[in-house]
Amino acid sequence: MSSFPYEERILELKEHEQEIIVIKGRAFIITPATLDDVERITSGMICID
Q1: Which of 1, 24, 30, 49 has the most CB atoms in a 10 Å sphere around its CB?
Q2: Confidence tier at 1 by pLDDT (50, 70, 90)
Q3: What is the DSSP-derived secondary structure letter of residue 38?
Q4: What superkingdom heads the lineage (predicted)?
Q5: Left if phi > 0, otherwise alpha if psi is -120 to 50, otherwise beta: which for 24?
Q6: Distance in angstroms (rounded) separating the CA atoms of residues 40 and 47
Q7: Calpha distance 27→42 (Å, rounded)
Q8: pLDDT tens digits, 4-40
């Protein structure tokens, strides 16, 4: 069992698929990042291995 909520569901997302997760009333769009996304957004990255 994962300690990260929804980990399995997030890892199943295909390229261009999205999920919305609401945390304490704030909505966040979750989508798999491309290499371009990682290069463009250089801060705020959290790595969970």
Answers
A1: 30
A2: low
A3: H
A4: Bacteria
A5: left
A6: 16
A7: 22
A8: 788 899 999 999 999 999 999 999 999 999 989 888 8
The structural domain count of the chain equals 1
Can you give the length of the chain in residues? 49
What span, in angstroms and rounded, lies between the C-alpha atoms of 46 and 49? 10
Tokens representing residue 35 in the block: 């290499």
Query: Who's near 4: CB < 8 A, 6+ residues apart?
Result: 48
Domain that holds residue 40: 1-49
- Is the four-CA dihedral 37, 24, 6, 14 of positive or negative sign? negative
With b meaning 16 or more CB within 10 Å and e meaning fewer, what string describes 23-37? eeeeeeeeeeeeeee
